[in-house]
Amino acid sequence: MLHDVQQGGIFYFIDSDYCAMTIVQNTLADEIVALRRAAEKRFSELRSVDDLEKFRVEFLARKGSIGELFDKLKTVPNEQKPGLGKQLNELRSFVESLFESLQQKLNPGKKGEEAAIDLTLPGRTVPKGTLHPITQTLNDIVAIFTSMGFAIATGPEIENDYHNFEVLNFPPDHPARDMQDTFFISEKILLRTHTSPVQIRVMEHQQPPIRVIMPGRVYRNEAISARSLSQFHQVEGLYVDRNVTFSELKGTLVTFAREFYGKDIKYKFRPSFFPFTEPSLEMDITCFICSGKGCPMCKRTGWLEVLGAGMVHPNVFRNVGYNPEEVTGFAFGMGIDRTTALRHGIPDLRMLLENDVKFLEQF
Ligand code: DAH
């Protein structure tokens, strides 16, 4: 009766009847070829340093498959040893070279450092963030005023009625206090509707002379559309000292407008009304989309309203404990979002709030 017993890849046919054993030879040559194929296949599947280490253990370690074949070499007849030994050595060199080529790529040591850099590969792009276009506009405006000697101040977006309206001389029944215009959080707490309350907070903590610029986000209870948002940005300015005059206000605003909108810009001042300034004005500039000819952007007037301003009302000074007989001052405030949209030809203000990276990347 014949049993075949596999031992380390060599088949021994044991003839139990005679208890004699015959070794079937020449399988080693086949195994060398098969192992080479197996190594190539496994190598093509390697993805990581860990994979590579498993590969090394499987094939190249002392007890790995190649080592096993070297052990078997001892059992073949002497005359076959040189030929098979040569083949085995070649197999080992081949698998070693595979291992080393990948090791240098995956895990560059000092020696492999240069080999690990493939200069023909395209570089990896590092995604770079950009400043939001509104932030850019804010920064540009703030830079113009700081170059004129203005300091920067900020205040809270959640304000109280006192700072947002009362101290700014708004009468109790002023329409801006209406629920329709203001987001109230409670009866006396609200989202600020303008940056003007920051003027008050500065004056409460500081004595004149004051020259300060106050950028920030403001909120109004308005229907959102392409032309208006319920949250937007303003830059507020305040200048308080002895003998500050209306002509200084105009000079400051004209200097700003020429710097920001261009040297040749045409402008005009219109009388206006704000509870916290007297007299008050609004400043228009020639529409820079149509150069004053009239277009949908300027509602065919040729003019764009860019800011409100005026001389600080004596009541405001009294409310913060300043003596209006001693100090005078001017203030101004301007919206940033529409200016940003005009600057870049953005057709819909809502795009400024959507945080679409593809849109924002363009600025
Ligand atoms: N706060 C005003 C608004 O939101 C803008 C403004 C007008 C600010 C005149 C001022 C100013 O400081 O003097 O419409």
Which key features would you list for this structure?
single chain; 363 residues; alpha+beta; BirA Bifunctional Protein, domain 2; 2 domains; 7-stranded mixed β-sheet; 3-stranded antiparallel β-sheet; rod-shaped; disordered N terminus; binds 3,4-dihydroxyphenylalanine
Short description:
The chain is of the alpha+beta class and 363 residues long. It has helices at residues 27-44, 49-59, 65-73, 81-106, 113-116, 133-147, 161-166, 196-205, 246-261, 314-319, 337-344, 357-360, and strands at residues 2-7, 10-15, 20-23, 151-152, 158-160, 189-191, 210-219, 231-241, 267-274, 277-286, 303-312, 328-335. It is rod-shaped and about 120 Å long.
Structure overview:
The protein has about 375 residues and is of the alpha+beta class. The protein has 2 domains: about 1-105; about 135-360, 2-Layer Sandwich (BirA Bifunctional Protein, domain 2), CATH 3.30.930. The protein has helices at about 25-45, 50-60, 65-75, 80-105, 115, 135-145, 160-165, 195-205, 245-260, 315-320, 335-345, 355-360; strands spanning about 1-5, 10-15, 20-25, 150, 160, 190, 210-220, 230-240, 265-275, 275-285, 305-310, 330-335. Helix 1 (about 25-45) runs parallel beside helix 4 (about 80-105), helix 2 (about 50-60) packs antiparallel against helix 4 (about 80-105) and helix 3 (about 65-75) packs antiparallel against helix 4. The longest helix has 26 residues, at about 80-105. The relative contact order is 0.09. The model is unreliable at about 1-25 (pLDDT under 50). The structure holds 3,4-dihydroxyphenylalanine. 3,4-dihydroxyphenylalanine binds near residues 196, 310 and 333.
